Amino acid sequence: MLDWRSLPVRLAATVALIGAAVNAVTTIVYAVTLQFLEGSFTTVGYYSDPTMPTAPLVDVTAVGNVFTGELAPLMWIGVILVGAVVPLIAALLEKRSGATPAADGTAVASRAELWMAVAVIAAVIGAICMRVVFYELGASVFMLY
């Protein structure tokens, strides 16, 4: 029999699982879209920034490839693995572990809370890594504006 006291915990686990799945799908779609759009950027080759004359020449096209370029480790490990896959696995484990209601009507802390924390922390780390990827991709074409 389903206990009404465990419903909020089950609902939170279901919402976390759905959110993690949507996050994983949209992150991977974003990475694939970036890869397909790489050829649409104007190729400018090497560029010397006139505001920083002592800085070496930079190949602005080297950053654009998020799968094999300079941003590949950050994209694969930080955004896709830590930011998308880990929260999805943590949400699945959270959904499996659940919480059991205590005799006094309160939910007993269980491994579900641990997995919720892991999912949130991993999603935040992935979001920060994605912002760095955004910045690096934008910095590679800033001279075109």
What can you see in these coordinates?
There is one protein chain. This protein has helices spanning 7-37, 72-97, 111-139, and strands at residues 46-47, 58-59. Helix 1 (7-37) runs antiparallel to helix 2 and helix 2 runs antiparallel to helix 3 (111-139). The mean pLDDT is 75. It is an all-alpha fold and 145 residues long. The protein is elongated and about 70 Å long. 24% of the residues are buried. The N and C termini lie far apart (63 Å). It has 3 helices and 2 strands. Strands 1-2 form a two-stranded antiparallel sheet.
Task: Quickly describe the structure.
By secondary structure, the protein is mostly helical. It is 59% helix and 3% strand.
How would the blueprint of this fold be written?
Layout (H helix, E strand, L loop, with lengths): L6 H31 L8 E2 L10 E2 L12 H26 L13 H29 L6
Antiparallel strand pairs: 1-2
